Amino acid sequence: MKSTTDDYHPLNLCHLKKSSFIINRLYLIFHSIAIILLFCFRISSLFHSKNQPSIPHLLIFISELTLSFIWFLSQSFLWRPVTRTVFTHRLPEDDQLPPIDVFICTADPRSEPPLGVMNTVISAMALNYPAEKLSVYLSDDGGCPVTLEALREAFKFAKVWVPFCNKYDVMTICPDAYFTGPEVDDEVTVDSDEFRAHKRRIKEVYELFAQKVTQMSESKNCVSNKDHSAVVEAIVDESAHDQTKIPLLVYVSREKRSSHPHQFKAGALNALIRVSSLIRNSPYILGLDCDMYCNDKDSARQAMCFHLDPKLSSSLAFVQFPQTFHNISKHDIYESQLRCTFKTLWPGMDGIKGPCLSGTCYYLKRESLYDLPLMHEDINLEELKQCFGSSNELLRSLYKKYDAKLQDYEKNLFQSLQETKHLVSCDYENGTKWGNEVGFRYFSVTEDFFTSFKMQCKHWFSVYHMPSRPSFMGSCTTNLNDLLIQGTRWSAGLMEVALSRFCPLIYGPSRMPILQSFCYAWLAFIPVAFIPLWIIATIPMLSLLNGISLYPKVTNPFFFVYLYVFVLSNLQHIREIHSTGASLQTWKHEQRVWMIKGITSHLYGSTRAIMEKLGAKEANFLPTNKVINEDEAKLNQMGIYNFQTSSMFLVPLCSLVTLNLLAFVVGIIRITTIHKEYIDSFFVQTFLSFYITLMGYPVLEGMMLRKDKGRIAPIEIHTYRQMGVSSNLGRKKVEDGKGKIEMAEMG
Ligand SMILES: O=c1ccn([C@@H]2O[C@H](COP(=O)(O)OP(=O)(O)O[C@H]3O[C@H](CO)[C@@H](O)[C@H](O)[C@H]3O)[C@@H](O)[C@H]2O)c(=O)[nH]1
Ligand SMILES: [Mn+2]
Prior knowledge:
There is one protein chain. By secondary structure, the protein is α/β, with parallel strands linked by helices. It has a domain of 253 residues. It contains 27 helices and 15 strands. An eight-stranded mixed beta sheet has the order 5-6-4-3-7-11-9-12, with helices on both faces. It has a three-stranded mixed beta sheet with strand order 8-13-10. A hairpin with a 4-residue loop joins strand 14 and strand 15. The longest helix is centred in the first third of the chain and has 31 residues. It is globular, with a radius of gyration of 27 Å. The N terminus and C terminus are likely disordered. The chain binds uridine-5'-diphosphate-glucose (UPG) and manganese (II) ion. InterPro entries: Cellulose_synth, Nucleotide-diphossugar_trans.
């Protein structure tokens, strides 16, 4: 491609979202003025409340300050939102495309069913990309033989599945989704009779395969093993007489010893980086969680429209796609779709220096993980070994430029595999810069957030691409327990960063655009919302019960400032939701889930991060449950909360809602029986308790009205005791007569 034609026929375009652009800035100005007025009121009431205690006023002031701080940071996401389009037909010919290594991580065959994992693997093998340029690596942190066996079966199935997808241009390349979903692909076929017969045959093969894998996963060997040696194996077909070309498939299970920290997902990814660098050493990496299957065969080509753009290429670290979920229910009461993140925040960051890495659904440039100031020209071998470890093969791979025409790597495959065992041993990283300046960073359990932040503090940037057909689809949380455990892990990981020397507000501004550091700071400080939420859910109510007025009287002009802030911020939230195509219901659920998480996950996550800092606890990563439970799915579909979770989460929710209900009732009684003066002084507090009771209504209903399994039963609250075994998140089983429910508790 000549450079003159590049300008006229770009591979991608970036568009500014102009309409939101103006509204967002007007909102910023008006809201800021209102907030300053609020502070004036609060400060004056602190100094003039002679005959009233000032502690409650002070606490409310703290909560208002914190909320304003969070709000202020959040405005950077609204500063310059953009969208992007790509032109895949303008990509160079296939033989010019760079190779891609696909990394898929799995950790526990019990919470991550092998059949789902295999579907992800197969879908990645069926991507529309030259087969000899695609290699798929499965990291099995569970070290489970069943997973390896299932992978062999998956390889056999892929041998018929991939050609089928190629031949008929199948869109839904994940077999399970293809055979169980709506039959949209069938419309695009040419020779329908032949196609239908072929499809039927493949379906039978798939069902056999699925049955086999399901059977294997029911065996008692199907558990994760925390103490085992390394296994690296390329899956090959012994009866290789047919010439079908499908991507290389490699199974990697790094060595694990209970005495060694294994650094969770980041550790697994770094092991894959090393293994793959000895095999194909592809310059690009597609990262996927085990439940995130490829839903669009063209995502790799779309990503290449950015990576191969000469204007972006040199400092583009990754192309992030949104996470979408196949099991979102109509109501989405748990706000599992993460609408705000993927429809508002990431497009917002994309207009500055690019979105944050989201752990999955990204095409990353390998080089961005090796980014070292140390990689200067005259670096000597010893220095290199101190960074990357002792493997000469690995060091050589750093300097090997990829060859678009591909060398015959298969000749050396066996030899490379031997060497890789050493690279995934427990000791390999000792004394090196892995996890520190090389690879995914270990500093925080939200490795994606922190690695991304550190990358963008260097010269790297990223782009966000959100095509209309979801490129990847995963399974989301469908019950309160999973939601809050996941939320606690995220909060802990984010707070670890916020409270460290890498706090984006301190570490960021000199290294990246100030707005970008505000975005990262907002993300890191999300958990802090637990402070204002706890204050606002208790202090105004306790004060109301004790006859202390905290807010301006209805006749006071400042009352209108409060009203304005409340109404305007909600209108802006509704507008923002509307602009992303969601309904008013989403507003309610987002508010509610924000409150629920704020009261529980954010509090526990922050506490955990502080304890880790003090050395009282160790970091932990309990994989989110991906097993679909029929009863649970039914409740979720009906929009009913499943409250089967630990008391640690339930007790605060129940007590706060009860307190608010009580305050509301008392407020109303007094308003109707006492003189007008009372209405004036306590209107805001009564309204607040009403609003919180309304938002918490499902909790009340769960405590008092419901009779089903998902309700909050008073006795259960007492039986879910603390485990107290170790500092880890432990799982325990609770028998409930009909079936077993898995509960997770924090020790
Ligand atoms: O020790 C571990 C723990 C987890 N995983 C894998 O990590 C992935 C993500 O774990 P999951 O339990 O699905 O976590 P989520 O909370 O759903 O994940 C989100 O948040 C994580 C950070 O907390 C990111 O790493 C993920 O990519 C992002 O999807 C899964 O494939 C796991 O198998 C490992 O490989 N090793
Ligand atoms: Mn997940």
